[in-house]
Amino acid sequence: MCRHLAYLGPRTPVGALLVDPPHGLVAQAREPRWQEHGSQNPDGYGVAWWATDADTPCRHRSTTCIWRDPRLSTVADHRAGAVVAAARLASPGSPVDVTGNAPFVAGSYAWSLNGIVDGWHDGVGDAVRARVTPARRAGIEGVTDGEALFALALDDLDRGARPEDAVADVIAAVDAHTTGRLNIVLSDGRHVAASARGNSLFARRVEGSCLLASEPLDDDAWERVADGTVVAGDASGLTASMRL
Prior knowledge:
Blueprint: E1 3-13, H1 15-18, H2 25-30, E2 45-50, E3 58-62, H3 72-76, E4 79-87, E5 104-106, E6 109-117, H4 124-129, H5 134-138, H6 145-158, H7 163-175, E7 180-187, E8 191-196, E9 202-206, E10 209-213, E11 222-224, E12 229-234, E13 237-243
Antiparallel strand pairs: 1-4, 1-10, 2-3, 2-4, 5-6, 6-7, 7-8, 8-12, 9-10, 9-11, 12-13
């Protein structure tokens, strides 16, 4: 049900996360090892990267599967100190349309959902979208759960929430209506928050960087993030963890 990753650290080619590792995002999109729902992620992908100190990330999205997109090589050449990327397996009932591809971006933030909100197209989506402020709700482009949940998080951030609290609050809002698998990544290019809720999430602890991914990208030392946990970090590594 999608694969995603987030990176903060020294400037590096985007391809060093997506293409070069033996189980980078391209490999795990095509042949996932930890994915329990679906055998591949062929319904497009997206990459957001902070190429400079500018607050607003660059982004590329495509409905072409990541291992076949001819533009991937161009994206992979960009150097960035922060990256959020995702390969998609569309949820049942959701169209394969670029508006449904994470990462979603707004201002300085990028967001990815690896999971599903149960009953989204059977009334739950309407109930969740109703919780979003009217102005922001009017800006939602597509019909997917991931984009609407991002809008909900942005409202929370506007009220002063920390990224990790915004992630936890969104999960609590979904829990008020339904069940689901809710692995989320939220980053502003300087900080990152991520949840493990029903899908795998791993962290690699290397001094001077923070790397989170649905699956280990290589055979280095990775730690699995406990299910039901939100973690937060910056370029120095993971800095906080809390239970949902």
